[in-house]
Amino acid sequence: MNRPADFHTHSLFSSDSDAKPEENIKAAINLGLSSICFTEHNDFDFPPEDNKDVLFQLDFDNYISSIASIKELYSEQIPVYIGVEQGLCRSAADRINDYDKNHILDFIIGSSHLVYGNDPYYPKFWEGRNIDEVIYAYYESILDNLDTCNNFDIYGHIDYIIRYIPDKSYEYNYKNFSDIIDEVLKKIIYNGKGIEINTAGLRYGLNATNPSAEIVLRYRELGGEIITIGSDAHYSRDIGSGFDIAYDMLKSCNFKYYNIFRKRKPEFIQL
Question: How far is CA 117 from CA 3, 31, 37, 47, 210, in A?
């Protein structure tokens, strides 16, 4: 039996990756993955850095034509899907909701990379702030995104912000934020969307996926059914990373299926 599909990967079409798409596909084939989906970054209104005026904005037409050609080349070896990881924010809601209006993509991940327009990746963001208050504000921003943006299929790495907490002595406890996380999960389910198990946290020294097992279990308890698995690989070597852990997590959280998407429609694959 093939290993699960990797439905969150990046290549040189994302501004933070130099990976060659062909190398990602070859890595997936060598691992015996059942399929792979490219989900390149597109973040409207992302704050510029290093004097760049445009950051994380995808050259959509070039991306589509390039991956379509590569997809055909490997069609007899592995299914290749074409997606986008769309950064969600109220200020760009109209552009987000109108994205891919010709229905070319297979899949869109909606992600929160910012806290009300500010990037928690940088230690400076955290200076002089209470960590719990920042984390709570991040979840509030997700609720705001869910109220304004609807053109996506699953919400990516829901507890993403914990990757970048600079105080390594801080112990993140899901229970301290369970009320607002429940609101997030309920709204995702109500809106007919899903979540992902993003294994990148295991590579960031968190010893946990994003979201953590507690959140995945709670999503299932609340009636959530749509769930994908993604490595969030920005290097070919990370394709399929941590999938054994994700697969076991799905089973322990009472999932009998995981999902892939084709033409924006979920397909349920039995575990």
Answer: 37, 38, 28, 7, 21
Which residue pairs from 118-124 have beta carbons closer than 8 angstroms and sit at least 24 positions apart in sequence? 118/47, 119/46, 119/47, 119/49, 120/161, 120/164, 121/164, 123/166
Asked whether the predicted pLDDT for residue 186 surpasses 90, the reply is: yes
57-102, pLDDT tens digit by residue?
Answer: 899 999 999 999 999 999 999 999 999 999 999 999 999 999 999 9
Contact by Cβ (8 Å): 199, 246: yes
Task: Compute the distance between CA of residue 110 and CA of residue 152 in angstroms, rounded to an integer.
Answer: 5
**For the whole model, what pTM was predicted?**
0.96
Confidence of residue 50 (pLDDT cuts 50, 70, 90): low
Question: What length does the chain have?
Answer: 271
Round to whole Å and give the CA distance between 58 and 111: 15
Say whether pLDDT at 155 is over 50.
yes
DSSP per-residue codes, the chain: -PBPPEEEE--TTSTT----HHHHHHHHHHHTBS-EEEEEEE-TTPPP-TT-S--S---HHHHHHHHHHHHHHTTTT--EEEEEEEEP-GGGHHHHHTTTTT---SEEEEE--SBTTB-TTSHHHHTT--HHHHHHHHHHHHHHHHHH----SEE--TTGGGGG-S-TT----GGGGHHHHHHHHHHHHHTT-EEEEETHHHHTT-SS-BS-HHHHHHHHHTT---EEEE--BSSGGGTTTTHHHHHHHHHHTT-SEEEEEETTEEEEEE-
What sign results for the dihedral spanned by CA atoms 102, 104, 110, 111? Answer: negative
